[in-house]
Amino acid sequence: MRRYAAVLRVAVVGLLVLGLALPPLAAALRPLRERVASAGAAASSGSWADEHAFYKRDDNDMSPYSWNITGTYKGSWSFAGATNGSSRFLEFMTSKGDSVLELLSTPTKISGVHYVQGTITFHDVIDKSHDRGAAQIRLEGVYIWPFRQLRMVANSGADGEPLQEEDYFLSNPYHLLRIFSSQVFQDSSEEKNRRKNSLTHDMEKHCNIEIAAKVVRVSTNQNEGEHEKYRLEGLMESPSVDDDGECFSSILLNSTSLNVEAYYNKAVNYTLMVTFISFLQVLLLIRQMEHSNTQSGAAKVSIIMIGQQAIMDAYLCLLHLTAGILVESLFNAFATAAFFKFVVFSIFEMRYLLAIWKASRPLNSGEGWEIMRRELSVLYSRFYGILLGGILLMYELHNFLRPLLFLMYSFWIPQIVTNVIRDTRKPLHPQYILGMTATRVAIPLYIFGCPSNFMRIEPDKKWCIAVTAFMGIQAAVLLLQHYLGSRCFIPRQILPEKYCYHRKVEDSTNQPIDCVICMTTIDLSQRTSEYMVAPCEHIFHSGCLQRWMDIKMECPTCRRSLPPA
């Protein structure tokens, strides 16, 4: 409150002399850079010195609530001079970069004066410990709206009192989703806040950071609706407290306010995309379950492949639900996406996982309920244990998140290996292979490839190309196995010996042999491709036994196990 009262006293003194000393006050309100550069020079047309004329042009817009500069301003920073000079606390990697300014403007009892708090974040800047690429400074000051002038100084919050702008940040989707993405994809927010606050506190003790800026309203198009858009132009200076030169060279700021509604709509569109993708995955899962609805067909599918996809959908469900809880205004949108992901993994994928598990143990299906329940408990314990263990692993290895995502997106590899080992025939439907590949890769491509993604993550084209090629190669191998055989790409020299069903049979009795599947006679005088001989010496038509083996890998006559065809 002491700081707030001091700022108000400064504003009161300025307004008391407004009517008597308008030209001197107008000169004092000019940015520091212009006061130095234009000393003794005549003001040019359209310069910032013409505050009185600007004031007269807006006589019909005198309400202190008509100019609310609260919001997020995104733009660029650059050095006013040719070089970046020296810095005690920051090292500038380039001569210009991106900046984000968060402002909260509160009207005061003094007409025309707003109390402003906020933060400014400089990208492409690192501190002396070289541990991050952004620096954040807390600010506070006043905005005198008749002259459109903003004056702010650094504030480290050393007294331990929470700043008022934190309440605004906790309700701003733009800021909250940035926190969420930094926690999930970059650094932990607690560690970032600790570093940023200590940096601001150290700079404030040795530097007088000042920002002088002008905030003007710019025209908006019809697509932006009633949103008021503002442009901020100003100068940031840092004279040293101990008269030992500047802490860093003067920095020019040029930012434009963001349309939070447009940003909100972007996040909603993302959740609609996730919902649509989840709906497509449900249809693809139903198609695959119909393709392998028999015991033999389900046994061909890798349980690790389905379990890995179920874990991925569970993670996506938790992430979207967390984002909805964090950003209250977007809860309905993110909760809908989380619900559909929950349906995908908990109903369809877990049901398919159970069907594959039952098909892989046909000899134990007739055992008692106690044994069945015990084995089911082991299956579910392993699944949810891997799920929770993966969360802990990603938390500990969050700096290696992209390699971990690469590992998660190798879910087709277990099926490829299973096909080679068992020499299975067509375990997956081609539509399921292509559809799942496309829908699985859509979300990471949006997050890491879209330049204007709502989480503001820098695009990584190389990683996107790599993960797309990786998924494409896996899908291509599965399609080759589907059409050319499970071992089509393996040299014959290293393949194990395979049982041959099409071997010549000598009929010494000259008695007709019937196929027990179709109950018709088998002509052994035809080509060997017309009939198949099982290891137990029972003979069947080729088409009949192949259709039988799609249902059961047992001999129709003696129930002995049959090797892959």
Automatic annotation (TrEMBL):
One of its GO terms (molecular function) is zinc ion binding. The chain crosses the membrane at residues 267-286, 298-321, 333-355, 376-395, 463-484. It comes from the Eukaryota. It comes from Aegilops tauschii subsp. strangulata. It catalyses: S-ubiquitinyl-[E2 ubiquitin-conjugating enzyme]-L-cysteine + [acceptor protein]-L-lysine = [E2 ubiquitin-conjugating enzyme]-L-cysteine + N(6)-ubiquitinyl-[acceptor protein]-L-lysine. InterPro entries: DUF2921, HRD1_E3_ubiq-ligases, Znf_RING, Znf_RING/FYVE/PHD. The lineage of its organism: Eukaryota, Viridiplantae, Streptophyta, Embryophyta, Tracheophyta. This is RING-type E3 ubiquitin transferase. It holds the Pfam family DUF2921. One of its GO terms (cellular component) is endomembrane system. Residues 1-28 form the signal peptide. Its EC number is 2.3.2.27. It is an enzyme of class 2 (transferase). GO terms for biological process: proteasome-mediated ubiquitin-dependent protein catabolic process. It is a multi-pass membrane protein. Keywords: Membrane, Metal-binding, Signal, Transferase, Transmembrane, Transmembrane helix, Ubl conjugation pathway, Zinc, Zinc-finger. Residues 515-559 form the RING-type domain. Pathway: Protein modification; protein ubiquitination. It is found in: Endomembrane system. SUPFAM superfamilies: RING/U-box.
